[in-house]
What does this fold into?
Amino acid sequence: MNMVDEITRAHRELFDGERKDLVIRRRYDAEIEDVWDACTDADRLKRWFLPVSGELRLGGRYQFEGNAGGEVLECEPPRRFKVSWVMGEAPGLSEVEVKLTAEDGATVLELRHVAEVPPEMWEGFGCGGVGVGWDLGLLGLALHLSGGEKVGEDTFHLTPEGRQVITASARAWGQAEEAAGIPAEKAAAHVAAVTAFYAPESGA
It folds into this structure.
């Protein structure tokens, strides 16, 4: 699998308003039931994303290890679910919705994250601050569905391929910002900041 190709193959959109609304859409060569199971089964989630505790059912509460938690707000197997997505005590709305569509033996996955983002975080990183993380997660799903191994979170950014993947993702989110009307200079600054955060130079 060419990981950079996996990143550039995805479609990204940003709707820039009082609430930030980012969308990633990509295709997986797997049946919809398999993709649904990979996204909703705790044992499979830890193999490509993170260990999760709680109840993965409508109305249940969940917590990803060292990451976000929340409540399962809506669930329509095997096509759609929506969850609240809260990091620590962060205030404000933050919800993630995943939609799956069967397409000729494959599955199109659309992930939408709508959030009220603190102004200082948006000013510094833009949508790439969250978007690159989602790209890396969905890359893990692609590896999992194809029978590959999960990349090492602690070392991936140190490898040449990891840096290429992160750079490609940050640039793609910069392009989404420009398409949403954000000035090119500001989008470029976000790309630089996000790349430095996710893949700092050795010794930085």
